[in-house]
Amino acid sequence: MNNPTLDLIMSHSSIRQFKSDPLPVTLVETIISAAQQASSSSNLQTYSVIATTDDESRGKLADLCSNQKHIRTAPLFLTWCADLARLQHVCQMGNYIQNAEYLENFLIAAVDASIAAQTAALAAESLGLGICFIGSIRNNPREVINLLGLPPLVFPITGMTIGWPKGESKIRPRLPLQAILHWEKYDPSPYEKALVEYDQTMQQTGIYKNRQVPTPNRDGDMENYGWLEHTARRVSQVVRPGLRKEIENQGFALK
Ligand SMILES: Cc1cc2nc3c(=O)[nH]c(=O)nc-3n(C[C@H](O)[C@H](O)[C@H](O)COP(=O)(O)O)c2cc1C
């Protein structure tokens, strides 16, 4: 089965090399308007997005996000934020007090922001642009919050580089469907076969050549380095251990 929307979705690959041409404001507004039409929990629309085009600010963001080069070279950087601050205004206008103390409140906003971001990604790709999500926006949240002037109850969830693609990019195969799709009940029995099969597929793409995750005691296993080894190394590491504190400092109690 295929149609133009499915073809677009299936041709996605993250773009990390961009031409320097700026994006017209109307184009950016079109992309964000499309993102706004995404589903949103109870239509609360608990997200905001900061568009950064200024060279110096993108340079600072790159420094804060593991010095990723494409943040400097992409003409536009979007920071998608969970945002409960706007609802403070809504409550004040009606003389209510927002109850935003629970983990659920943060999750609602983080999910809303993520869905909007992915919708923007598809909109941008439909216009011939390339995008790459930037999770490293959560590496130094306090500095990002200060740089972008985010008020309490607004927290960066993901960044996104956007621009006109330069050069070719490869589509990355995904896990076999049976590793993801469960009918009626969760069933892990196809995992082993699917994972080994996927590892072989990914090894053939050469994606992991020369980019092994350094891990103590395991650097001798390079010849079999594929998705399985890469992923196991990746998830055996501690990631952003201070994040909870930063989210709490920004006014989300996460009870
Ligand atoms: C939430 C999220 C955060 C990501 N963060 C980064 C990042 O910081 N840097 C980067 O180069 N790619 C990042 N990516 C892109 C993924 O590496 C990429 O989507 C994945 O490897 C699959 O490749 P594809 O998008 O080309 O199909 C991120 C993707 C997501 C969804």
What is the number of E strands?
4
Q: Kindly state the mean pLDDT as a whole number?
A: 95
The helix/strand class is alpha+beta
Percent of residues in helices: 40-55%
What does this entry look like structurally?
- The chain is α+β, with helices and mostly antiparallel strands.
- It folds into two domains: 166 residues, 3-Layer(aba) Sandwich (NADH Oxidase), CATH 3.40.109; 59 residues, no CATH class.
- Helices cover 42% and strands 11% of the residues.
- It is built from ten helices and four strands; from the N terminus they run H-H-E-H-H-E-H-H-E-H-E-H-H-H.
- The chain has a four-stranded antiparallel β-sheet with strand order 1-2-4-3, sandwiched between helices.
- It starts with a helix and ends in a 6-residue tail after the last helix.
- The structure holds flavin mononucleotide.
- The site of flavin mononucleotide (FMN) has 12 residues, from strand 3.
- Flavin mononucleotide binds next to strand 3.
